[in-house]
Amino acid sequence: MRLRILHTNDIHSHFDQLAKASTIIKQSTQEHTLILDGGDFADFRSIELQGTKGMAAIELLEEVGYDALTIGNNEMFNGIHTLEYMASNSFMPFISNNLVKKDLSAIKGVFPSVILHKNNLRILITGSSPDMGVFNEGLGVHMHSYKEAIVNELERNKGKYDLCILLNHVGTFADDELAKEIPELDVILSAHDHKLYKEAKIIEGTILNSAGKYGEYIGIVDIEIKDQQVTLLHSETIETNGVEADERILAILKVNKERAIEALSQPLYKLTQPLWHDVIGENPLTNLIADGLRDSLECEIGLMNSGIANAGLFDDVSNKKLIEICPSPLNPTTFDVLGKDIKQALEQALDAQTCLADGRGPGFRGKFAGRLHVSSNTEIVHDGKCVHDVILDGKPLEDDRWYSVASSDYLQRGSGYPTLANNRNDQYQAEEIKDVIRAYANRCEFIDQAYLNRWKLATPVKV
Description:
Oligomer: single chain
Helix content: 25-40%
Number of helices: 15
Strand content: 25-35%
Radius of gyration: 25 Å
Number of strands: 26
Structural class: alpha/beta
């Protein structure tokens, strides 16, 4: 009995590229074909997904003809409720053998494995999701050991299947070890680290393949199952660039984009005062974020870089405007930092070249790092080049004291301002920075407060 497996991974909502991949998938589909995705299909940087609670992705998966999908980290990043909504409304199974809610209960619509039937074959498909470490708590999830979870699924389904396929969103680094330690795995289709195999490889009899990223390649694995032996007949990864796009995919995208824009454009409220923005100069929008973070996370100081936003807010506020001005899916984060490291970062922020430096970093969708802004309980006295004093709640900042900071995971990693990476006790929230703007931009006291300057020029001493 023969079977063709077509697979993708780490599409990351590059749906224009998916339209090309769909053409190849439909052309390459034979009578007995499985179409699988290894996760990170749905990246919520896409306005189509944000405006449809992810259902645009489900429509696209259905049109292409996917049989199953494992859950990557990006399927989690819009919150557990969105994941549940997508999974429970999907025609095809969302699979993860090691992902549960943080209270250890099951996620609605998510299966640890499924058995599909093709060409009289019983095919067990299981999938593993990546452990997000310190992000798990904020995302509201718990990750079991993927190795133990795989073994449990194989044992639970013993005697019920003829072929086992693992969709592995842990990364290719784990593949070799899994192939050697768990001989019951017949095929491992890998994801997460965006590796591209020109063709499948075999380790200890297990077939391994990975198809790169962004829908730039389609993996093809042709196998034969005979006398309980699985034989690789043919494999390749086909490039999608230059291929004509599937018009049906483009049409679905167009409809969902229009639907999303309409939903996201609904006014939430009107601003009492405009919140203008500037990359180098102190501005009320970034001040508002710093104040909102400190208030919501209950820390001693709020700290935010103006590069988090790329424009100001005026008049009506809508979810569409919030996405446009604050596109980075960065999370409110608390951590402790020594006073001297905060001071050094603030002094660095006086340099325009630092503010205008390329702000690239994980999750960052802006252009510049931007000026550091602090919450309204903080005053920075400077001469334009050096910071003379930092006053927090009426007291000078102490060099060797640890202070609790409300900020983002971007600054927690030291992006743009390296000394802030010298921190401890970091904790991440599931929300995004744009949610802080939404929550505080309709509160008059915070709007008024945002116009209070925190950076003060030192008064020259007259002799």
